[in-house]
Write a structure and sequence with these properties.
heterodimer, A: 329 residues, mainly alpha, MetI-like fold, two-stranded antiparallel ribbon, B: 428 residues, alpha/beta, D-Maltodextrin-Binding Protein, domain 2, four-stranded mixed β-sheet, 11 strands
């Protein structure tokens, strides 16, 4: 993980210089030639659909009444922002994002520490075991959780009937909060390994001598963790949080499988699906998709600019600045 | 090197010529039939009709998603995109107007229409029409009847040879602490139920289903709508359908009916072969089928005949199909009364043709066939409008959870909701 960080920083430093050598220009050309095809494909499969959706969102357009397509400018957006259905879906999405990312961060840290500190002999097995949930397809995982909790086929009510509030008659998917709890639990179970893996990479980057020095200075375990390990992992944590937050905000599969948006569990991606795919209202559905995209973009922007996360280098720019002698970015 | 390339290119071109030449001579037009999932009956019919066609065409099947709304989504998107592979489509009747209105369906030739609807049951025929024209060919027709546990009905003192009402069922379940098997899940089955309750009171959900989106009016905010909500709300609030009512679909309600606390159930005829199979397998009590009786769909008002739900599958041809004549020829083969009989016997889906019920084998396998046939005669289709999806989803949203359905508020709210959605004033 640390290897690519240094050349990337160096490359940026070189790019800042006014005159480029022939070799640098040749490298840049080669870079474009190598990355060009992928870049074009990316444009075709991402930029084009985004542009098309943005264009469609300005129309009242139903797939089964193509002749009645009409330019309505921002009316679709106006409808969204004045409708409680949209805001409820937005808030539910936000709630799922905040809760799942927070819990995953804590659990992911614990798992990363376990993997980091595990005996060498156990390390491989442990990492594989922890990664198993992440390797399972989301839809399959969602069905597994659904069948576990479903009042008709699930075993949870019977196994945990001794827990106050749980009985054979508890319909987990018949109430907003219980349904959301199961959805969030499934998400946390599924993606905590992802965060754990990113944090493990961050932990490996913390120089052992710093921890040793702290120990020599008499720092307690908590102090070592909060004063040495966490600050040195800031970039890894931010990358993990950002990636997971972006992913969590686009949640679809689990909600679709478990409740289909019933009981007030609808999320933005499902709202877009229902307008575009179920109602065949391409204009309205595109508007929801565009708003979802803008939210994700905003989160990305906020993380990169406000928290100084440098996704390319795997370190945060405040650290890079320190290493490069306060280079002005 | 150049020589090698030339030789390879020449060989490839020759091979292509030979292949296409052979293909052109032997090529049999392939008709793709998009089928809804069943027990293999449509696949068998495709094979049978291919053999009977004797090389005129070959039918291959392509499986659609499990539930009717998802089937509609796929068909509508393909049709809108001008997909020419949609030669034959199995379509759920309520979605037919939406596909017929923009001209996505090829017109049914007059002679085919006459031959295939000679003895079609009234309800099934109504579901195949749009704007007074036959736009699809009825294949099989489905309806719900009332299934009951004889022991429960006996203890309740109900004479099941006479029509019973929803109030009778509610009272019986309440007194004996049994569960009523209805469909309380937020799905199409909720609209099916609401529509039947409305139609059983002589009211339709829409005043004029053929009206445009801006002019559609609903009849939900009425006495009939309130009575509908009262029945659903009572079952929901008193937990008469059990604690898992929010996830009760047709299959789950059948499973609940099969348990010890089962009492009465409104459901499609598939439950009979499914229950018999379960009894044979040993997953339910072997004597259970002996305790099951059937009767006409429950009434809302004792003096007004019930209007049971109407379902089924009709066959349509895509407007962009490259072989519409052959497709209709194949459809004529598929929907022949004897094929409908066979399909009923093997897959449990009732025929749309009256004469298909005459086979004695039907009475043997489905002793309730006469009840089903009568129900099909009285069945009422769901609102036939191109905006059915919006109307159905609005009903599902407002009538679930059933425990929250209120006779005063729910019908009025649903009516307003439908109008707002159709006028583009709110999201669905």
């Amino acid at each position: 993980m640390s290897t690519p960080a240094v050349p990337a920083a160096k490359r940026r430093a070189k790019a800042g210089k006014p005159a480029k050598s022939e070799r640098t220009r040749a490298e840049a050309r080669l870079g474009w030639m190598l990355a060009g095809p992928a870049f074009v494909i990316m444009l075709a499969v991402t930029a084009y659909p985004i542009a098309q959706a943005t264009f469609d969102s300005l129309f009242s357009y139903r797939l089964t009444t193509p002749d009645e397509r009409e330019f309505v400018f921002l009316d679709n957006y106006l409808l969204l922002f004045t409708d409680w259905t949209f805001w409820r879906a937005f808030l539910v999405t936000l709630l799922i994002t905040v809760v799942t990312v927070a819990v995953e961060l804590v659990l992911g840290f614990a798992l990363a520490m376990v993997m980091h500190r595990a005996l060498k002999a156990l390390r491989g097995v442990l990492r594989t075991a922890i990664l198993v949930p992440y390797a399972i397809i989301t839809v399959v995982a969602a069905f597994a959780w659904y069948f576990m909790f479903d009042i008709n086929s699930g075993f949870i009510n019977s196994w945990f009937s001794w827990v106050p509030g749980i009985s054979a008659e508890l319909d987990w998917f018949g109430n907003t909060w219980t349904a959301l709890s199961v959805i969030m639990a499934a998400e946390i179970w599924k993606t905590t390994p992802f965060i754990a893996l990113l944090l493990l990479a961050g932990l490996a980057q913390v120089p052992e001598e710093l921890v040793e020095a702290a120990k020599v200075d008499g720092a307690t375990r908590t102090q070592q963790f909060t004063r040495v390990i966490i600050p040195n992992m800031k970039a890894a944590i931010m990358v993990a949080v950002l990636f997971r937050a972006l992913d969590a905000f686009r949640i679809f599969d689990s909600v679709f499988v478990m409740t289909g948006g019933d009981q007030g569990t609808e999320v933005l991606a499902l709202l877009a699906y229902r307008q575009s795919i179920s109602r065949l209202e391409i204009g309205l559905g595109s508007a929801v998709s565009v708003v979802l995209f803008l939210c994700v973009l905003l989160m990305c922007f906020a993380a990169i600019k406000l928290f100084n996360v440098d996704l390319a280098s795997g370190t945060d720019q405040s650290q890079a600045k320190g290493k490069n002698g306060g280079e002005d970015q | 090197m150049t020589g090698n390339w030339s030789r390879a290119a020449a060989a490839a071109a020759a091979a292509a010529l030979v292949l296409t030449g052979c293909g052109a001579e032997d090529e049999v037009p392939v008709l793709t039939w998009y089928i809804n999932p069943d027990d293999g009956g449509q696949q068998a019919l495709a094979q049978q009709c291919t053999e009977e066609a004797d090389g005129a065409y070959r039918i291959q099947t392509s499986l659609l998603p499990n539930d009717a709304p998802a089937q509609r989504e796929q068909l509508a998107r393909r049709l809108a995109a001008g997909d020419s592979s949609l030669d034959i489509m199995s379509i759920d009747p309520p979605f037919i107007p939406e596909l017929a209105e923009p001209g996505f369906l090829a017109p049914v030739p007059q002679d085919v229409a006459e031959r295939t609807t000679e003895d079609t049951l009234e309800g099934a025929l109504a579901g195949a029409m749009w704007n007074d024209e036959l736009v699809t060919v009825p294949f099989w027709a489905n309806t719900q009847i009332l299934w009951y546990r004889e022991s429960v009905a006996e203890e309740a003192g109900l004479d099941m040879s006479e029509p019973v009402t929803w109030d009778d069922l509610i009272e019986a379940a309440r007194e004996q602490d049994k569960h009523l098997s209805i469909q309380g899940i937020r799905a199409e089955s909720m609209t099916v139920w609401v529509n039947s309750l409305m139609e059983s009171q002589g009211e339709s959900i829409l005043v004029d289903p053929s009206a445009g989106a801006d002019e559609l009016e609903t009849s939900l905010d009425s006495e009939a709508g309130q009575r509908t909500a009262e029945i659903i709300g009572t079952i929901g609030s008193e937990q008469l359908a059990g604690p898992g009512v929010a996830s009760l679909d047709e299959n789950q309600s059948m499973l609940m009916f099969q348990r010890d606390n089962g009492s009465f159930m409104v459901n499609w005829p598939f439950v009979w072969p499914a229950t018999n199979a379960a009894a044979e397998e040993g997953s339910v009590d072997a004597d259970l089928p002996d305790d099951i009786g059937w009767a006409e769909y429950p009434r809302v008002d004792p003096d007004t005949p019930a209007a049971p739900p109407l379902g089924g599958i009709n066959l349509g041809v895509g407007a962009e199909s490259e072989h519409p004549e052959l497709a209709f020829e194949a459809i004529e083969c598929i929907v022949r009364p004897e094929n409908q009989t066979e399909y009923f016997l093997t897959n449990g889906n009732p025929p749309s043709s009256a004469s298909a019920f005459n086979d004695p084998a039907i009475e043997e396998d489905f002793p309730m066939a006469e009840t089903i046939r009568d129900a099909l005669d009285n069945a009422a289709p769901r609102p036939q409008t191109p905006y059915y999806n919006e109307i159905s989803e609005s009903i599902q949203l407002n009538f679930t959870p059933v425990s929250g359905v209120n006779a005063e508020r729910t019908p009025a709210n649903t009516a307003q909701y439908i109008l707002d959605v159709l006028r583009g004033e709110r999201l669905l």
